[in-house]
Every structure is written in C-alpha cells, then in structure tokens.
Amino acid sequence: QVQLVESGGGSVQAGDSLRLSCAASGGIFSSYAMGWFRQAPGKEREFVAAISRSGGFKLYADSVKGRFTISRDNAKNTVYLQMNSLKPEDTAVYYCAARITPATMRPNEYDYWGQGTQVTVSS
Length: 123
Hints:
Shape: globular
Distance between the termini: 40 Å
Radius of gyration: 13 Å
Helix content: under 10%
Largest sheet: 7 strands, mixed
Order of helices and strands: EEEEEEEEEEE
Number of strands: 11
Strand content: over 45%
Structural class: mainly beta
Low-confidence stretches: none
Mean pLDDT: 96
Oligomer: single chain
C-alpha cells in the first residue's frame, strides 16, 4: 500500500511559477510510474503529466507542454511538478497518483492517489 502526500500548492499571479511535490511512503517508489492530474470545480479530473519508473519517459497534456516539467527523485521517494508561466485556467486541485506498470494518461489506471493540493492562479 502506497501513501502519497502532495505539497507546494498556493495562490499565485498569472505568469508565476510553483513547484509541487509528492512524497511517497509504504512501497518501493522506484516500482511505480507516477502521474499528476488536476480537477477544477465542476470539471472531470484531467491528466497533466506522467513519468516512468526510471524517469526516462515522460508524458504531458498538450495544455501544459513547454510550461510544466515532471521529474522524480527515487532516492527521496518524491515526484515533482515544476509549473512555469501559470495561467488562470491552471487553477485546480492537483493530485499525484501511482501505478505499477507503464505511465499512462488515464486516471482510472492509477492505483494510489494523494489527497490533492490547491493551485489558484489569478489574472
């Protein structure tokens, strides 16, 4: 059983940056592909980024390509989401998730979820 705890959210202005962290415990972190998802009020949860177990393969949603970067530190059992050039439409609760087999964009294929961290971007 893997426990995931996100941190790093907050309220920023458009154009600012934030770095989200997701600390994992209770499992072998390097065994899991990791993903970031977000959910805005009244909307479905959507894929943001994912990273393979080794970090050598990454996926991004078109809406964040070139602005967001996913990375991981297996020695620290942590996955990160660096978010630059933030826009008001990035406002959402951001969740990290873990799954055993390859990184994917589909939230229903992830087995473990964190509680989420709020990101609010004002114009």
